[in-house]
Input
Amino acid sequence: MGSFVNFRNLVKKLLYLLYLLVIVVMLMEVAYRFQIIDFYRPELNALNPQHPNTKTRGKKTVLVFGDSFTVQSNSWLNQLRIDSPDYTIINSAITGSSIVETSYVAPGRIDDFDPDIFIYQIYVGNDLLGITHHLNWSQWSGTRNIYWWLSDRIHFLSYLNYKMGQLNWKLQGGSTQGQSEEVAGGEKFDLERYRESEKIYALGDPYLISNSVMLKNERDKDVEKLLSSLSNTISKLKPECRVYLLIIPHKAQINKFYLDNMKDVGFLFDPRFEVGKEDYPFVEKLKDYFSETKNVVIINPLLDLVQRDSGSTRVYFLNDEHLSDEGQRIVKEVVRSGLNLKEIQSDTSKISQ
Output
């Protein structure tokens, strides 16, 4: 009898702890979604050490959101800063983020910086994955499937995973050696060295790249969510703010060399998937959606990346999905041309006179 009572007490305690855990997670989810706490302030400060935390008087302000392509130390944004000293360029990018995180963080940043130019960098490779994970119980572990199902609904869990990833990276010494070696020594594609996360995605969602580019297998629904959230974010900007959507293609879209590498990783592609194609369904959807919005411009560097990639100068890292130094330079040139900052500055001077 005593052991039965002890068992019942243990169950009650466990249920009580579970109840507390649920309450804490719910409270943190609310705090995260409404950014009651500025969860990404450390990232903002780290990426903008020379810039103030509010709008600078006398200078046009460019507010940029994106993911790891914009966070990289050699990113197109940092190069644009060097070329455009007359502008205050605020990097609010978050590694591994999608429109989900941006929709929560952007309103506060817009209030802080009151941007004259707003840039949102989109990555075709996995931004739709950030909205919905397609589960695969036969290829992925139950733990992974359960986590992704929960994190698609409780976004604070994704934030916790992101912070744990940062901690793990620091514990491992924060090494970027693999990327540096590729830039310096022309490393070859090596399946053993390729990013493990990409292999995991290829195992359970082999058509991820193809479906994202072509908007197949319900990725068309995900892009609708992206556009809806993006439109809501843009609505919070002042009417005269210029908006630019920078679309970074997946390396498999560039040429057969990268496509074959992705096939070796384990990804599969629709027979109608075309390399080097500038206007593909993902881009066409964005163009059509914003066709009547005069202050929104889409910047698509795909053809420039296609034309400049070669055996001696690769625009993407070979064992990573990110842009190489050369690729970042190309994107910076395309962005600078698309923004036409000199023209904007000239127009502003005329107005002030």
